[in-house]
Amino acid sequence: MKKTQQNGSRGRPDFLLLILTLLLVGFGLVMVFSASSNLALTNPKFNNDAFYFTKRQLAWAVLGIFSMLFLMNLPYQIFKRGFLLLFIPVLLMLMVVPFTDPVNGARSWFQIGSLGIQPTEPAKLAIILYLGALISKKGEKFRDFKKGLVPVMVIVAVICGLIMAQPDLGSCMVLASCAMIMIIAGGANLKQVAVSGGVASIGVAILAAIGMATNPKGWEYRIARFTAYSDPLADQQGSGFQLVSSLQALGHGGLTGAGFGESVQKLHYLDYPYNDFIFSVIAEELGFIGTSLFLLFYLLFLWRALIVALRCPDPYGTIVGVGIVGLFGIQAFVNVGGVTGAIPLTGVTLPFVSYGGSSLLVCLMCIGVLLSISREANKQDKPERTKRSHHH
User: Fold this and answer.
1) What is the DSSP letter of 45?
2) Does the global pTM surpass 0.85?
3) In whole angstroms, what is the distance from residue 82 CA to residue 130 CA?
């Protein structure tokens, strides 16, 4: 009886965030079709099926939306105690994945039949839930260096170390930045954070050096990406080819775009136009005006998600929410920055828009957690509203 009363008293989920998410996923499906249809149609490996990638992405989107609705209906406090149910399997997968067969020079994937699962994706949500529980539990003690910051930094370092072993520098950077945002949001001493950040950067550099020595092949094209960033025209047909193709796509798009489906660079010039370089295709087909509208929409989505996190009356909900928004924001910045030449390319997907099943599923699970948090905040508003109506 108590349970039903509790559930009945939960507030409504944030419908604006839900609608913005579904619109973003829908736009992603349309752009994945546009970016991949020609490649899939002309390649027997993809059964010469123009919808090959779109159908797979749609299947993951449906699974993701079901997961989102399921998590939305769980009280988010469950994750404070139950985070280990996700964290331990993720940790085991990250330990095993460096021993799998390499795909594109990195050992980041588990192949289950024709499905590829990338453990770095669920690791992002696992670390957000874990850090949220750890930071909020410590409360005031979190400002204490030994008892507060060190245990958190150790967990982040272990996960980042395992991701660097693949090697996946992009995901490592995203995860570390996201953890840093959560640590600051949790009220850590900023001096301690700055010092720890410096030490962590040195640690990453040492890990990278070890990685280069032990697996030079896996690091070759990463180094090439950095040199291409500093001068893409120096080796236009080699290491700079991707970035030059991406910039040509942006230029061809001009102000109003070449038109939907009319991208030239997606035709065997850009590697993975439906994945890492989907923003280049958006820019080429929709132009500066369309791309600006898309980015404004993305900012509105992030702003709404942040409001949901900040409205939560419970520090755990706020820290987790801020971590999720940080994850989406940093990943979008790294993806868009990379393909526009603002920062070096790291091969990070654009959340909700790029092709990639593990990524889309985890992004929608994150939104499920956020919507569960929004229900708690709306519940807090309820008594006030009923009081007001009684007064009237």
Assistant:
1) G
2) yes
3) 9
SS3 112: strand
pLDDT, position 5: 38
User: Could you tell me how far CA 146 lies from the centroid of its own chain?
Assistant: 30
Q: Coil, helix or strand for 199?
A: helix
Query: What is the distance between the alpha carbons of residues 331 and 354, in angstroms, rounded to a whole number?
Result: 11
CB 41 within 8 A of CB 50: yes
- Structural contact between residues 332 and 159, judged by C-beta atoms closer than 8 angstroms: no
Q: Are 326 and 179 in contact (CB under 8 A)?
A: no
Contacts of 206 (CB under 8 A, 6+ apart): none
Residue 197, class by beta-carbon neighbours within 10 Å (0-12 exposed, 13-18 middle, 19+ buried)?
middle
> How many residues in the chain?
392
pLDDT in tens, 344-372: 888 789 999 999 888 999 999 999 999 99
Mean of all residue pLDDT scores within the chain: 83
Between the two ends of the chain, the Cα-to-Cα distance in Å is 32
Closest to 321 (Cα-Cα) out of 47, 129, 159: 129
Cis preceding-peptide flag for 167 (omega within 30 of 0):
yes
